[in-house]
Model the fold of this input.
Amino acid sequence: MEGEPADPTVGPEGEPADPTVGPEGEPADPTVGPEGEPADPTVGSKGGDMNLEKVVFGFFVLLAATLNFGFFIGDIADPALHNIYELFAAIVVSLIATVLKFGDRTQIGAVHLATSLVADLQLVAAALTWTYYVHIASDSLSPAATASVVSLSGGALVANVVSVVLLVIETVSYHRR
Done:
């Protein structure tokens, strides 16, 4: 059987061949499976691994938007429907999302950072307005004061929605590369 080609699945002593080594002892082609079929690109490669940094980034962007929405929703002039602790949580998460956006040096990263800074500014202004009317002004939290606070958080919500849309666009365009 000297004229027949050697079986690539069997080694020289009859043991199963090492799939990581080619017939001449060189490293096997990682794009080809042991039977000559195309190898699964998600097995054992970085292509199938999840990027933890992107997961954390997306988590905080979405959490900032949803917390802001939770504070914003409801009758604009009814202070009973807008919890100060929810506003505080929205500010904290938005600031964390802003810090996470500082590392991205791309154009879309710059726009992400800008939207986050706008949201932070609007939310801090809402908190300062709430603080002024509750602790400094004599009329407490009137419907007009509540409307001002909620309107400022609405501006932050628009910035957060833009940030989420950018995140989705970035994710979709990443898979096309």
